[in-house]
Amino acid sequence: MSKKIIIIGSGIAGLASAIRLSTHGYSVVVFESNNYIGGKISEINKNGYRFDTGPSLFTMPKLIDELVKIGYKNPEKKFDYKKIDTTCSYFFDDGVILNAYSQNKRFIDEVSNKLDVDSKITRKYLDYVAFLFKSTNKIFIEKSLHKLSTYLSVKTLFSFLKIPFLSIFKSMNKTNTQRLKNPKLIKIFNRYATYNGSNPFVAPGILNVISHLELNEGVFLPNRGMRSIVDCLYEICIKNGVVFKLGSKVDKIDFLDNKVNGVYSNKEYYSADIIISNIDIHYVYNHLLNKPHYLSRHTKNNRSSSAIIFYWGIKRTFEKLSLHNILFARDYEMEFNEIKSSQNIQSDPTVYINITSKHIATDAPKNSENWFVMINVSHNKGQNWDLLVKNAREKIIKKINSFLNTDIEKFIEYEEYMDPTSIEFKTGSYQGSLYGSSSNDRMSAFLRHPNFTNKIKNLYFCGGTVHPGGGIPLALNSAKIVAKEIISNEKK
Ligand SMILES: Cc1cc2nc3c(=O)[nH]c(=O)nc-3n(C[C@H](O)[C@H](O)[C@H](O)COP(=O)(O)OP(=O)(O)OC[C@H]3O[C@@H](n4cnc5c(N)ncnc54)[C@H](O)[C@@H]3O)c2cc1C
Q: Measuring from atom 10 of ligand 1, which residue has the nearest CA?
């Protein structure tokens, strides 16, 4: 009889693990507390508008292609997406607008035309982030850092020899200032720290690797929006016989003699040979295992940032805007300091606007646009979020009006929002942080919780709060590591 695996949570890493293990002959059941799957990758369909509520930026689509290939074993089956030419439009307070492009020669020319930066400097920087990626991906991202075997290969040895060149001991900002010199270009590259909820003025320079994905490999968009990633993975799971129990919150993991036996959900007991947790690591140790002391000090203390997001149906179109847009704060360092220390919304927030209707016409009514408008804020520390959301809305509107020379409020015909408390409520993310722990210190990238624990047998962890980290590509890699680990342990 096939071994039974219970996966707790149907986030992207839970779905990816389910595909990998069901195709390997395991019998897989996914427990999900919501009445829908996908976790943070969700959507709103209202009044003719469609909004992706969570992730909006799609890189490394090959990780989804890989799952389609594994799941269908049919080369005809494909996940539909396209490469986007203009990856982001950056707006600065002095009126400069700079477009970034998937094709990096075009980006280098744009930087040299708009910012008067020698093309050699930008070229060299893009080569440097490609080097970071090449040096880290195979070891730090695709493998578990918590297994001796990872360290017993020549490839690993070479990766470790490169450590002095990976900017681990300098902040992102310091590295970027030394390499780029131009303040606007530094700001553009510092912003990549926010892709895992960190602060570029303290996070290590190695995180500059994130920009490689966008600027050297390209930005993509699923033809039916981000939510279709989850729909596609779910279809494969169903085809492979994965069972989903929706509205089924797991309340407890049952373990005896340090080996898991099953879970309790809705007062029923379900046995399993193996359990994979795809939920926030805090929640697992604090509530499902009742072992809060198993959490390392590092995992406990450093939360990544959260966000306030407005979903606005805008009954007008704006030529100046593209799919991804950034309206920068004047003083970026001050913004991060205010996010860290403040109980208030930062005085001048950087505003991100994502508009999928620029490419997917059905996402908004004719002559209208679906705006996803986001600012980064601190994770939930008990602030008065009703007040802060009101304050954020005022500041965002003021900023958009001044950058786009408009009165945006009169065009908002549909509105909804999320704040750290609703993010926590809807996705089980501890304190509403978007990416689990932050990378705001030198070693944090290496100190994320492992994908298994030596303290409890047959219990594994995937998703954005464990190794290798938050964001879709890393969460997908966590599923890959977990599946590989389970399969190889079984062979032993
Ligand atoms: C607003 C926002 C913007 C983002 N932008 C981007 C982006 O542009 N690009 C990018 O790559 N990433 C982005 N991210 C991060 C990305 O969404 C996450 O890293 C990734 O989706 C995490 O997936 P996961 O597998 O960890 O599961 P999650 O999505 O965290 O899902 C966990 C699931 O577990 C369920 N669950 C929790 N507790 C229980 C329980 N006790 N029993 C049963 N089920 C339970 C939850 O309901 C949820 O469905 C963003 C996130 C947010 C919120």
A: 471
* Ligand 1 in reach of 81 Cβ (< 6 A): no
Q: Give the chain's domain count.
A: 3
Domain CATH code at residue 284: 3.50.50.60
The 10s digit of each residue's pLDDT in 268-304 is 999 999 999 999 999 999 999 998 887 766 566 678 8
Q: Is 19 in the pocket of ligand 1 (CB under 6 A)?
A: no
What's the per-residue H, E or C state across the chain? CCCEEEEECCCHHHHHHHHHHHCCCCEEEEECCCCCCCCCCCEEEECCEEEECCCCCECCCHHHHHHHHHHHCCCCCCCCEEEECEEEEEECCCCCEEEEECCHHHHHHHHHHHHCCCHHHHHHHHHHHHHHHHHHHHHHHCCCCCCHHHHCCHHHHHHHHCHHHCCCCCEHHHHHHHHHCCHHHHHHHHHHHHHHCCCCCCCEHHHHHHHHHHHHHCEEEECCCCHHHHHHHHHHHHHCCCEEECCCCEEEEEEECCEEEEEEECCEEEECCEEEECCCHHHHHHHHCCCHHHCCHHHHHCECCEEEEEEEEECCCCCCCCCEEEECCCCHHHHHHHHHHCCCCCCCCCEEEEEHHHCCHHHCCCCCEEEEEEEEECCCCCCCHHHHHHHHHHHHHHHHHHHHCCCHHHHEEEEEEECHHHHHHHHCCHHHCCCCECCCCCCHHHCCECCECCCCECEEECCCCECCCCCHHHHHHHHHHHHHHHHHHHHC
CA–centroid distance, residue 229 to ligand 1 (Å): 13
Looking at 220, 245, 280, which one is the last position of a domain?
A: 220
Q: Look at residue 62 and tell me if it is in a domain.
A: no
Looking at residue 362, which CATH number applies to its domain? 3.30.519
12 within ligand 1 shell (Cβ under 6 A): yes
* pLDDT over 70 at 437, yes or no: yes
Per residue in 125-151, pLDDT (tens digit) is: 999 999 999 888 766 677 666 665 665
Are both 473 and 423 inside the same structural domain?
no
Domain range enclosing 264: 4-41+226-301+439-491
